[in-house]
Amino acid sequence: MRSGSVSQGRGLLDYRDYKASTSWDDVMFDEERAKKPWKKVALAVFLCLAGAIMLTTGIVIWYKGPGEGSATALLVLGSICFIPGFYHVRIAYLAWKGVQGYSLDAIPDL
């Protein structure tokens, strides 16, 4: 039998010092490990604002000169940005207010 620091002494790599989590809930729902999803919320706010600016600019260009190609492009791109941005900002706001059924986990990761 081999004698070493693991079996006889209390060295740095002693297996008795290791305490593993006993349940999945301890790992998944630990409040200290939970990160605040600021990047998700910032992206949602950016999409919402960028979409609103593009939609507003597209509407102004459309009324100044109907049939402009840039107005249609801005309206399409603005709606593509604004709709998901507003949806995720709404989820973040309702989760911040504490409304039951809404969580920041519903916003997808980057």
Question: Which keywords apply here?
Answer:
110 residues, mainly alpha, elongated, cytoplasmic vesicle, transmembrane, synapse
Structure commentary:
The chain has helices at residues 5-8, 24-28, 38-64, 69-97. It is mostly helical and 110 residues long. The chain has one domain. Helix 3 (38-64) runs antiparallel to helix 4 (69-97). The longest helix is centred in the C-terminal third of the chain and has 29 residues, at 69-97. The chain is elongated and about 45 Å long. The mean pLDDT is 78.
Give me the Rg, rounded: 26 Å
* Element order: H for helix, E for strand: HHHH
Overall structural domain count: 1
| Strands, total number | 0
Structural class: mainly alpha
Quickly count the helices.
4
Separation of the first and last Cα atoms: 53 Å
Regions with little confidence, pLDDT below 50 for 5+ residues: none
Major sheet: none
Instruction: Give the overall form.
Output: elongated
Give the fraction of residues assigned to helices: 55-70%
In brief:
The protein has 110 residues and is mainly alpha-helical.
Layout of helices and strands:
Layout: H1 5-8, H2 24-28, H3 38-64, H4 69-97
Helix pairs in contact: 3-4
InterPro entries: TMEM230, TMEM_230/134
Family: Belongs to the TMEM134/TMEM230 family.
Subcellular location: Cytoplasmic vesicle, Autophagosome; Cytoplasmic vesicle, Secretory vesicle, Synaptic vesicle; Early endosome; Golgi apparatus, trans-Golgi network
